[in-house]
Amino acid sequence: MLTIFKAKRALCSELVGNANVLGVGVGYATKRALITGEIAIVVFVKKKLRVERVPQGQRIPTTFQSFRVDVVEHAVTRPCNCTSTS
Fold first, then answer.
1. What is the pLDDT of residues 25-47, one digit of tens each?
2. Does some domain include residue 27?
């Protein structure tokens, strides 16, 4: 299992500078919002696009060092003021 974490770090280094990438982790792959049970490198992006709309140098691979790569669209979070006014 340790090798997937090394692969994740290596992929993370390759994705530096990709403005659409929010983060990279390890978890279960999903298909149509259902967990497949397959362990994968998970790349969180601002907006998931069709591959043909992504410039060649910005594409995220479907596999990396023999591990599946799952791309997940994730909303950009913004801090909020949660103090009560009452």
1. 999 999 988 999 999 999 999 99
2. yes
* DSSP code per residue over 61-85: PSEETTEEEEEEE-PPP--------
DSSP classification of residue 38: E
* Domain count for the chain: 1
- Reduced to 3 states, what is the DSSP secondary structure of residue 42? strand
Assigned domain for 83 exists? no
Residue 55 has pLDDT above 70, yes or no: yes
Q: Report the alpha-carbon distance of residue 46 to residue 36 in Å, rounded.
A: 22
19 belongs to a structural domain: yes
- Domain limits at 55? 2-73
Asked if 7 and 15 count as a contact pair (C-beta separation under 8 A), the reply is: no
Residue 13 lies in a domain: yes
